[in-house]
Automatic annotation (TrEMBL):
One of its GO terms (molecular function) is transaminase activity. Its EC number is 2.6.1.-. Transmembrane segments: none annotated. It is an enzyme of class 2 (transferase). Gene3D superfamilies: Aspartate Aminotransferase, domain 1, Type I PLP-dependent aspartate aminotransferase-like (Major domain). This is Aminotransferase. It comes from Runella slithyformis (strain ATCC 29530 / DSM 19594 / LMG 11500 / NCIMB 11436 / LSU 4). Keywords: Aminotransferase, Transferase. Its cofactor is pyridoxal 5'-phosphate. It comes from the Bacteria.
């Protein structure tokens, strides 16, 4: 006998990487040396001070209890100082910050907090799959908004006007953009805030890549005047601080939005381990040189990744930011799915097909830079 599932569980699809990485593991168990350029999982360590802070905290007798739902004051204070230093934005540590167990969980809490069944959510036609999946899980309707490929994958604000109606509640934005690597610009953020105000919709900006291979100083959406009325921003320490497995990030925004999300969140988890919060405080003090060194490592991998794409006759934009390379397939390749499977089963190389980020990605692939350059060169050699 099997007890029936909720409708949302029958409709939701298992996360692509969860399925595909099981295939990768199977090949590895059979003795194949799979080069995994699929997922954006940083291979470098957090700073030494970060690890020392976790280790020290874990050794203290009073570190192991439940923590405040809103995080320790020291963590919120460090986030505020970091925001000021990195983005020049002032926030109130008491009321405008909510620590999160990764920004992926924040996407769920925000959706639970703001969306009713049948509300409409604007998601980019190419983007992080969780925006779409979670909107559907809470019964909202997903409306894809177009990105202009010939204008650096910026949202088509003109076309978006016609997608808005009285049910439109929330808009997901993410620049530097994953998967295309399109950089953030002040003009884009100003347009977004103006659009959200005009149509009275909540603008949720997901900002995990602003420090990775950025070609200009990083920007926060909250630096736009008046943004806090309609916008919230997610930041993650997964990529920028090499802490993906630690599960730590936060949400910034006006008190009313933070309080509302906290009400939902406090019914779901019971705070974040003190050691991780204390380690995050140390990580947020990483020097500019530390971040520079991480970027030097990513940059040193670009030549190999580009050689890999050239061997596949793919084309790509040089202005990409973040830890991936997004590339277009040549016309003679039938589909991304076929190429990905051929590479996996014939060459033991795993890359991400573009369609997992939305239908517009049918003829694209995404390479991750999260492995040593030698390993990427090895993949180039396997292509012959
Ligand atoms: C655009 C985007 N948002 C959010 C996340 C999730 O970040 P976190 O590890 O903080 O949950 C990712 C991870 O790949 C991402 O690419």
């Amino acid at each position: 006998m099997i007890i029936s599932l909720a409708q949302r569980a029958t409709q939701a699809q298992e996360y692509y990487f969860s399925v595909k990485l099981a295939e990768v593991r199977k090949l590895m168990a059979a003795g194949h040396d799979v080069i995994n350029m699929g997922i954006g999982n940083p291979d470098q360590s957090p700073s030494e001070a970060t690890i020392a802070a976790l280790s020290h905290s874990a050794s203290q007798a009073n570190s192991h209890g439940y923590q405040a739902y809103k995080g320790i004051p020291g963590f919120r204070q460090s986030i505020v100082q970091w925001y000021k230093r990195v983005y020049g934005v002032s926030l109130d540590p008491e009321t405008e910050i909510l620590p999160l167990i990764g920004s992926k969980e924040g996407i769920t809490h925000i959706s639970l907090t703001f969306l009713d069944a049948d509300d409409e959510v604007l998601v980019p036609e190419l983007g992080y799959p969780a925006y779409r999946a979670v909107s559907q899980m809470v019964g909202a309707n997903v409306v894809e908004y177009p990105l202009l490929e010939d204008q650096g994958w910026q949202p088509d604000w003109e076309a978006m006007q016609s997608l808005v109606n009285s049910k439109t509640k929330l808009l997901w934005l993410n620049y530097p953009h994953m998967p295309t690597g399109a950089p953030a610009t002040r003009e884009l953020f100003e347009n977004a805030v103006q659009f959200a105000k005009k149509h009275k919709i909540l603008l949720c900006h997901d900002n995990p890549y602003s420090l990775i291979l950025n070609q200009k100083p990083p920007i926060s959406l909250l630096s736009v005047e008046g943004a806090k009325e309609v916008a919230i921003e997610l930041n993650s320490m997964s990529k920028s601080h090499n802490m993906a497995g630690w599960r730590v990030g936060w949400m910034s925004g006006a008190k009313a939005y933070i309080d509302a999300v906290l009400t939902i969140k406090s019914n779901v988890d019971s705070g974040m381990f003190l050691g991780i919060q204390q380690a995050a405080v140390a990580a947020l003090q990483n020097t500019d040189q530390w971040h520079q060194a991480q970027n030097d490592i990513y940059r040193s991998r670009l030549d190999a990744a580009k050689a890999f794409l050239k061997a596949l006759h793919c084309t790509y934009d040089e202005s990409q930011e973040g830890m991936f390379l997004w590339a277009k397939l040549p016309e003679n390749v039938l589909s991304a799915e076929q190429l990905v499977d051929e590479l996996l089963y014939q060459k033991y190389i795993f890359i991400a097909p573009g369609f997992i980020f939305g239908p517009k990605g049918q003829r694209y692939i995404r390479l991750s830079l999260c492995m040593p350059a030698e390993r990427i060169w090895q993949a180039v050699q396997r292509l012959g």
